[in-house]
Amino acid sequence: MNPPPPLPPTPAPASGKSLRWLWIGLAVVLILVMIAIIAGFGWFVFTMAKRAEAGAGSPDRDTRPVTVEAIRHAPTALNRDQVSEMLDGWLDERWRRPLAAVSQPEVKDFIDKAIAWETRAAGYPAMWQTVEAADQAVLALPDGTDPLPVLRWLLGRWVSDPTERLRYLSEAVTALSEEGGDPILAWHAAVHYAMAIHQGGNQEDLPLYQAAVARALTLLDAAVAAESDFFQNAKPQLAAYALLADSGASPDSSTIRQFLEENHAEMAGRVERNQAVPEWLRHWVKSVHHIRAAWDARGSGYSNTVTEKGWQIFHAELAAAREAVEQSYRKEPTHPGPASEGITVAMGSSDEPLTEMRKWFDRSTGAQIDYERAYVKYRQGLLPRWYGNKRSLEEFGEACLEAGRFDTFQPWQWLYVHNQAAEDWDLPDYYWIELRDTAPFEKLMAGFAAEPARQPWKRFDQSMAAAFWFKCQQYDKARAALEIIELQPDARALETWGIRDATELLQKTAAFTSAAGEPLKQAEKAWIRFDSDTAATHYAEALAQGGLSDEVLAYVRHHERIAAMEAAFAGGGPVPFLPGPETHGWLLLGAPWQPEEGRLVWQGQGTGLATALARTGPSFEVTGKVRIQPGSTPPQEGAKFQVAVTYGYPEPGSRRWGSVRFLVGGPEGIVSFGRGFEAPVKSVPAPLGQEFSFRLVGRQGVFDLEIDGKPVVTKLAQTERGLVKERYAQVGIGVGTNDPGAVIELTDFSLSKPSRTRPDAGEAK
């Protein structure tokens, strides 16, 4: 048995001197702790004060050194208008002239809008306006018309109905690739067809997508072989457009660019083998391939999630991309595209990223001053999460303004930088309300007004000004800008600000500069804090002012209706849920809507959305009756009809909304649940005839549904549960049909908070 361990030594008794020093040490520690607490509290108060100074919901201010230098350009650099003029001639030859014999005014209008949108020429339409023009062109074509190949291609690109889009594109690919067709347009149509399948999102469509990709790449080979003289002799801007649809006029990713990034290895290989493609273009495509391969290897997660092998591939691929960019730029320094890829390479792998980013930015804008992709990439690199900060972004915008090139889009970068800053706020609209220094914007507008080359853009520029002052709540200045353009704002300019409908801008500006301005301001404040009852009272006070113009009356009644709907919904409801003849409180998209009192009718082919602008949040109950009258008896073969309840933020371009769609047509009805009008994430068979009633209860993306009083689903959760959680969400109605003679009638619609009772699936009530 081992002996126990020895006891620890007994401590010696402390002397009086030792105890004195012990107490002194404890006092010193206590004083230091108190100083640290006071200093920490002072830092907290200072930080909160600075955040309050910056404005509600703003990020912390960043005081790191600014790195942006002045911007200078050679006088030989092109601008967007010059590139648009080149492209307009090419599209006139390839798009408009083959359709010269078309007589329908709607079709001619559509072709003009398509070319204007593609070139981004002065006065170009918004995308949704081009889509509407395409839908009207389809309706104008006589029954049985076999559209010309180029018209099929254009309709396939723009029509709103996904099924029709695929049909037109498929027919265009076949017709344009035949002898006597247009090989370059066949390549473009084939890419759009493949990506239209891909964007549907159905896994079962994967083999179809892969076959469409293979066909598109084959047609790429055919286009280069047939048009080798064009590719070798065309101006760089036109060669780049023919191969990549790079117009130099917009930051929007073209469909061909998306196709390249999705299939970068295959497409880069094809282009590399096609020696008829100019060498600089081959290197450009190769650089995109290596950039995508680098990020595919790295992944999109945080750096600590990347494997050692992933980092090795990442750096090797970016090194190859840098070499390809250098080769492309050396061969053709007059096109801005390859140099813009250099900014991306510098952001991913560089010892001095800010210096290298600026080098490639200067090279890109030295070819075209306002090549938007270069600005988008460079601004991204100046974000705090990359290599810059808030102040460096602001200084970049100021440098673009100070460069004084008002014959280009460059000065607008000042505004785009502030737009980017606003997006970082919890409530972006408050950024503009808090913006104190508006002198640079006034300088920007004065510069455009004095520039003769900018006069064709006057309507666009003044529309941007009206929207800026509107956001800043300086309504007198907004009204002055609108009056310069005779109250006809440019839709594309407003779209930059997220303003889909000019009516709100026009009516609110008129209302807030009228005699009713003060009660309207009080109503808006109440409405913002969700006090809809008080808001409705102030709107009634505004109406009582008397002497108001029709425009102001329309604004006040519209918002009074929104507030009243919200107040009634908050009280439990039910609320009548159809727009009246004046559509106050609603936003209707689509031409054939016919609103009546207690009845909403859609007549004709196409799709439409009607959204109640009252804020209901993600939980609601909607009931209603639907009656479908086909254009013929029996319905024409292939006729399909749908009615939907939408929720979230239903508008074109937004993916933050869902729908419950009632699909009628074929042997049985179907109810589908999904995001927007995209491919559904869940579908169930349902007893849907040409007349039916329904009750839909939604609770945070979980649904109960009855049709004709019988349960169909209970507690069905969308795959994308929680798609919409905010109390700002809205509920609406959607319709669609491919039957040009159809009538869809909606009656007895009501909206309320969800009731407590739930039906049991499979059991009749």
Key structural traits:
28 helices, single chain, 765 residues, disordered C terminus, eight-stranded antiparallel sheet, 15 strands, globular, disordered N terminus, alpha+beta, seven-stranded antiparallel sheet
Walk me through this protein's architecture.
51% of the residues lie in helices and 13% in strands. By secondary structure, it is an alpha+beta fold. α7 crosses α11. The N and C termini lie far apart (83 Å). 42% of the residues are buried. The N terminus and C terminus are likely disordered.
Using only C-alpha atoms, the radius of gyration works out to 31 Å
Task: Give the averaged pLDDT, no decimals.
Answer: 85
Q: Strand pairing plus helix content: what structural class? A: alpha+beta
What's the end-to-end separation, in Å? 83 Å
What portion of residues belong to β-strands?
5-15%
Q: Please, how many helices?
A: 28
Shape designation: globular
Low-confidence stretches: 1-19, 41-63, 757-765
Question: What is the count of β-strands?
Answer: 15
Residues in helix, %: 40-55%
Q: Sketch the major β-sheet.
A: 8 strands, antiparallel
Question: In a few lines, what is going on in this structure?
Answer:
The protein is an alpha+beta fold and 765 residues long. The chain contains 28 helices and 15 strands. The longest helix has 39 residues, at 16-54.
Provide the fold topology.
Blueprint: H1 16-54, H2 80-96, H3 105-119, H4 127-140, H5 149-158, H6 162-177, H7 183-200, H8 206-226, H9 228-233, H10 236-244, H11 255-262, H12 264-273, H13 279-298, H14 308-331, H15 337-348, H16 353-367, H17 372-381, H18 390-402, H19 413-423, H20 428-434, H21 439-450, H22 458-471, H23 475-484, H24 491-496, H25 502-512, H26 517-528, H27 532-543, H28 550-570, E1 575-576, E2 586-589, E3 593-596, E4 599-603, E5 606-612, E6 619-629, E7 641-648, E8 657-664, E9 669-675, E10 682-686, E11 691-699, E12 702-707, E13 710-717, E14 730-737, E15 743-752
Antiparallel strand pairs: 1-15, 2-5, 3-4, 4-15, 5-14, 6-11, 6-15, 7-8, 7-14, 8-9, 9-10, 11-12, 12-13
Helix pairs in contact: 2-3, 3-4, 5-6, 5-7, 6-7, 7-8, 7-11, 11-12, 12-13, 13-14, 13-15, 14-15, 15-16, 15-17, 16-17, 18-19, 21-22, 22-23, 23-25, 25-28, 26-27, 27-28
